[in-house]
Amino acid sequence: MRKKLICMALTTAALSAAILAGCGKQGEKTENTAPSGTVQSDNLPVNENGEPDPLGIYQEPVKLKIAQVVNPSDTFPEGQSATKNAFFDYFKENLNIDVEVLWQSGSGDDYNEKLNLAISSGELPDIISVNAAQLEMLIKAEMIEDLTPYYEKYAGETMKNAINSTGGKSLEAVTYDDKIMALPNVKSFKDGYDLLWIRQDWLDKLNLEAPKNIEELRSVAKAFIENNMGGANTVGLLGPSSSNLLYANFQQSSGTMCGLDGIFQGCGALPGYWVKDNEGEVVYGSLTPETKEALSVLAEMYREGTLDQELGMRKDADEAWKSGQAGMFFGPWWVGYNLADALAVDPGAEWLAYPYPLTDEGRWAPHMPNPSDSFYVVRKGYEHPEIIFMINNQLLVPEVGNKLDGMGILSGYIPGRLVINTAKPAESDAQILFKYLETGTVPEYDVSEHTKMEIDINTVKDFKLEPYDDLGIETWNVSKDGNFGRIYSTLVGVGAIDKGYEIGCDEGYSLLYGQTESMQKKWSNLKKIEDETFLKIILGTIPVDEFDTFAEEWHAQGGTEITGEVAEAANK
């Protein structure tokens, strides 16, 4: 049985009424029986023998109410929108599911606030995207379904194989008192890396090389600004939107969009992660000398103007690079999915990715993600808890995933979608595609690890022109439709990850990605202190040496106790 992990990301005020109404004592366990909140439906996907069919279709229409995260800069094909689009049509035609958007929000804090309100009012969507903290709290409030019987009956073989590829970590993350309470994502480790995305055409115009270390990055940013490459308000190194993370952490360990992880990694720092120091002792990565050094570098960059001057205030970082204002940012491999928007503004915008900056030792040192940190849960009492498995089983069928990828809409708008991949395949998608382009022969590959490879091979030459080893934008047939975004992201983004391993990669794992008991009352305050202090240091509001005061305060307000618990858990 999984150790109960306590998380407090949702506000106590938002959940207190629900918890008191929904359960007795918080420490009490519920009996491991069939879900009591569900009204069993006769309208279930079954095969001709009447057995559960993970790839079946509902005989009668099923209504599904969802919440939706909307980015103002996202675009849709003509005649479509966030609430009426080809994804919704697909699920109606192929699963007999009628999707309704119950409410919309922005990402990050905006979504969390809307979810808090929905919990307080009891008006939850039928399926809900949550993080680990939100999952824990909804379990305690008894507001979500036990999915154990539905996992056994409706999780397809491909889904189960991917979940099992993490060595039990993914199921452990959603198991509470021997019950599976959510469907976990399974990230390919490539989703955790932060790459340096840079305007290669700007580099070429200024006769500059891609910056391999932090000092070179600062010089390139300065050159971009001094030469007004993006206009009078050119941004050298772009920072995150105000609602997003400055850097990944053990609770949210995926690659961050426009975060500053690359600078920390170039200094050999892993803020937000639990690591061991030179003496082998467990320490919080935000307290190390390397993190202080990185903050000093960022403060210097902000002061000299090479770092985003709207850091902490920018509402939409994506708009800054898509519009041609910014020259560099750190982001995940899949940035190419959004590239067509930037090319619509400037057809010559050439964004390439690099595994930079390197450490002083010339190594690439990315943080590594928790394989499962995002989950879908089902509202207590919803008639069709199996629906979350049915949706994602469909998405894992290569032909279906490829069809949806080709609809010209960002995949985040697929209702109920979770990224479920093999954690670490033996060979990357980019390596397979490059082999095909070089030889003209389809290489052998494991279909279960590379579910989209067939369509990638069938379409790669529609978008990538010769010479195949030149990734310049002039060698691409750019399109907002079809498979362009994935092919570009794979060859450029995943290709950069492969290059990082060729250079030499020091993978940075957190000793713990879960929670400890003392975090129930203390972590949210410690995280708030950290976020505020680090931003103030970078912006120059307080001096870098305030880092030492922060470290003392962090320990005094519960950090020492939590570190002991982490050490105990890590050493088991």
From TrEMBL:
| Listed name of the protein | ABC-type sugar transport system, periplasmic component
In the UniProt record, what gene is named as encoding this protein?
lipO_4
* Pfam assignment, any one: SBP_bac_1
Q: Which SUPFAM superfamilies match?
A: Periplasmic binding protein-like II (SSF53850)
Specify the signal sequence span: 1-21
Compositional bias of kind Polar residues: 32-46
- Species annotation: Hungatella hathewayi
Q: Region labeled Disordered — which residues?
A: 27-50
What top-level branch of life does the organism fall under?
A: Bacteria
Keywords (alphabetical) are:
Signal, Sugar transport, Transport
